[in-house]
């Protein structure tokens, strides 16, 4: 039983790290600031959620798991607020989104 | 498994630093620093489990707070030009 929980939590943690690297590749490859912001939100949701859930599964039911849950809730509340403020500030600061030729 | 995940997260932190250096506008740099802070919170949590000292989670929680406040403060500075004036001159100044 303990072996199964270890394997499951390691799968969660490794896939969370893969999600983080995928989001950073999206930040490098996307053509526009707003699409870059879109790719970066994978890191905030999938990466942190998978890694912190894997650590909670590894540590079991104790105070450490409660602290991990607090970190997860705090990240899930604050990073959309920060992304929204970043998009609003960039739009007011004069960054134009890149549109297709048939959309202007 | 913690070693593998920690090395992958260190590689991701290196990529975020490169993205902060080569970003064209200032908003790209702020985005990269925000990503770097989020990855740092996860790295501190993983490092506490790697060295079997989960007390590091308090530091991770405080780092998440500081990251959010720093992002909002830098964005306010770049949007309004300053960090706010004294409020007895203009009522809308410190919003």
Map the helices and strands.
The complex is a heterodimer of chains A (104) and B (95).
Chain A: H1 2-29, H2 33-59, H3 63-92
Chain B: H1 2-22, H2 26-50, H3 56-80
Describe the structure.
The complex is a heterodimer of chains A (104) and B (95). Chain A has 104 residues and is mostly helical. Chain A has helices at 2-29, 33-59, 63-92. Chain A has one domain (2-92). The mean pLDDT of chain A is 88. In chain B, helix 1 (2-22) runs antiparallel to helix 2 (26-50) and helix 2 (26-50) packs antiparallel against helix 3 (56-80). Chain B is built from 3 helices and no strands. Chain B has 95 residues and is mainly alpha-helical. Chain B has one domain. Chains A and B meet through helix 1, helix 2 and helix 3 of A and helix 1, helix 2 and helix 3 of B.
Q: What general form of chain A does the structure show? A: elongated
Strand content of chain A: under 5%
Q: Give me the strand/helix succession of chain B.
A: HHH
Instruction: Name the shape of chain B in a single word.
Output: flat
Number of strands of chain A: 0
Spatial extent as radius of gyration of chain A: 18 Å
How far from one another are the termini of chain A? 58 Å
Attribute tags:
heterodimer; A: 104 residues; mainly alpha; 82% helix; B: 95 residues; 0% strand; flat
Short description:
With 104 residues, chain A is mostly helical.
